[in-house]
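I had to read the description of the data format several times before I understood it. In essence, backbone conformation is discretised, so a fold becomes a row of integers matching the chain in length. I therefore recommend that a typical entry be quoted early in the introduction. For illustration, here is how one protein appears when written out as sequence plus structure tokens.

***
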Amino acid sequence: MTLHIENLKFGYSRTDGFQLDVPSLRVETGSTCLLLGPSGSGKSTFLSLLAGVMQADQGRIALAGRDFSSLSGSQMDRFRGTHIGFVYQTLNLIPWLSVSENIALGLAFAPERRARMSKSVSLGVHDLMTRLDLDPASFADQPAGQLSLGQQQRVAAARALIGAPDLVLADEPSSALDDANTTVFFDLLMAGLDRTRQMLVVVSHDARLAPRFDRVINMQDLIRGGSAA
């Protein structure tokens, strides 16, 4: 499985000339990639393009052999649900739902991910919770809004990982965490990733994360003019 980007260009209609320009990029199954850059460098924009939430002006993004530009909006929604897991910077947990219910939401619009699980959804949720150091006996039925921020980050990661989507994207997942919780979070995220089936792309401003990744790309090398802010 490969994420393949070719001759990608994207720019906002503004006078500062900001444009993402990615001649070629490949991310293979089992690999991890960090997109590194300051605020306004286009990190979140690039991640939205990789998730198929935004469309490029030119070029090609393909995953699992499917060119995003060939898919209709509804087809892209289904494809995203099947093949892509997302850890949002704002987490997007539903605070009144339990931890296990929030994690299972990762399968709500992804019947193919649910079907390829080798165990029941409940067992899959509990397995991921254990791997991410969230004791199911203590946390499974607890409302997500009652957890600490570090614990909520792990719930968001589990939701993205459940059903082993081919591509896991994470947008500044540690931006609100202190150094100690950042270390714990990335240790657990990497441990929760199935390297035989999945690839991980993270965007961050924190250069200290670089040694954890197989590949590091500086966003300044992918933009022209202005900023995305």
